Amino acid sequence: MSPDLPLLFAERAGDYRAGIHHCTAAELREVLARLLSAASRVVIPPGLPQEWIDGLTVPLLLDGASPAGPAGSGAAAPITGLTAADLDAPGVSVLTGCAVAIAETGTIVLDAGAGQGRRLLTLVPDHHVCVVRDAQVVADVPDMITALPDPTRPLTMISGPSATSDIELNRVEGVHGPRRLDIVCVH
Amino acid sequence: MSRELPIVAGEAFAEAARRELGDAQLRANLGRATRTIRDKRARVVAEVPDWEALRDRAAAVKDDVIARLPKLLTQFEQAVTAAGATVHHARDAAQANAIVTELVRAEQADQVVKIKSMATQEIGLNEALEAAGITPIETDLAELIVQLADDTPSHILVPAIHYNRSQIRELFARRMPGFTAASDEPAVLAGAAREYLRRTFLAAKVAVCGANFAVAETGSLVIVESEGNGRMCLTLPETLIAVVGVEKLLPRFADLGDFLRLLPRSSTGERMNPYTSIFTGVTPGDGPRRLHVVLLDNGRTTVAQDPVGRAALRCIRCSACLNVCPVYERAGGHAYGSVYPGPIGAILSPQLTGQDAGFNRTLPYASTLCGACYDVCPVKINIPEILIHLRQTGPKPAAERAAMASLSWVMRDRRRWRLALRAARTGSAPLRALTRRRGGTLHRAPWPLSAWTRHRDAPLPAAETFRDWWRRTHES
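YS: structure for the whole thing
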């Protein structure tokens, strides 16, 4: 892996007006706590590393159902499968990792694996925080395809917040998906 | 079904274009939109050093798909069925509409949410559902605008490009339940659509989508979008119905690597579109419980038989050819009378329906043959070549056939040809004198030559033929 790829990824993801945050593994806890401090609740998919959650001071919603990935790592038992209405409540944020990230296009790829959860979790809430580790960044789309552990899992490629240019070609961010996307790059 | 399909032109292209050209607002919007998108496209394409190699590979993959269509369809059907989906085959539009209607009825739903899909537009699915008492709700913002206005799309990628913001605000105020905003800012209008559609998404039981790609190897479907309305439709309702043209197949999952680099850059001029969903059958606990895939032929296997015309089936509906076409840029999408406008529409619509349908035989003439469409096509469809092919093989007016037959008789014999030229020269002498000041061209000729001069000037025969000039200057 070229050492430039994570930086290219961050630059290209920033082009889509996603929020880009750089930190070390040691600083991650603090960065996440800051990004999520204003949320009314934070949705947590099963299998998210415990140390990402430890610093959070807001109420958590732990989703129970994610058959594609291993179940939550012990401590907090899954509450229930959250409904779309739960996720649609005001001020809800969701915190996930990703399966792969693509440098050339600034894209994060979720495959419903551990720490990512069902597709709904990253769609209905208004704010998505995604953690990307350097080792997860590949050069381009063909490399992403090779890097996927199982292509038949439900895959979502995300390049910035949702957007439309349908009215006079004016770009408006945040139509149906999360209006804000924050990407935390852990170096 | 007596109604013509939405890919059959109801009037000759030249007549429709003449009317559309009178709309100054339309021309201004189109000019700005096509210029903006093609500049963006040029910038992101220039970033990719191996762009030409990508195009070559993609064209070869699609040609392989067209050549092995029956085999790949079987492979796709087996894979997606094994992943929990139900496959249906539709020979034509009527069959596809009947299948989808029946599936929606079986869920006892009286409305469906829809992802923008050219295939469902091609078969007139919305009209068929409405006739069956089912309300289809378009969830792409531009398609929603077009639907609320009871209008038809004018561009494949930005279907509502012929509306400006104040027209859209007025439309929302009239047709969108609960709309109260006073502002016509695009962000406010998009926000209103978000509120309106979110209630609809959360209550939806059935969604209908198309597919950008269908992978034979794995049975995966791929949906490329920007707004997130696609993801909503793909994950919230319990039943999902995908209407997929058979030419959407790709043999291998790895083929997506090239196609997902080509499509967004060619289409919206972005390195990547905001959301791409790839899903394989049904995943318990994540997304719909039931997936139906309706494989749509509707003329495609017939097109695949034509050794020249079949390259049109490579099309991935990016709309890059629309944005570079001097004819589309001025006449706009409605002039083509089909949901497939622009250069690709001019070769796709007449081939899918046969040139005898409506006025589709006039579409291959909606071009200057400049070739800009061929240059930008991500799957390298030689559109000018197919346009000429369709002109050659299409039905021609009786007058043109008679003229060509007599011309052929005259040109087969040197003596006849010389006499004819001389007669034309002598006969046109008075006209030449009359039109000398504007360069010896005719603006308006009497019938049947008026068919030619309605849309262009006709040059008059020269005062002296080349042969006469040569004899006069070299042989005397």
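YS: worth flagging: Chain B is about 50% helix and 10% strand.
IM: good catch. Also The longest helix of chain B spans residues 24-46.
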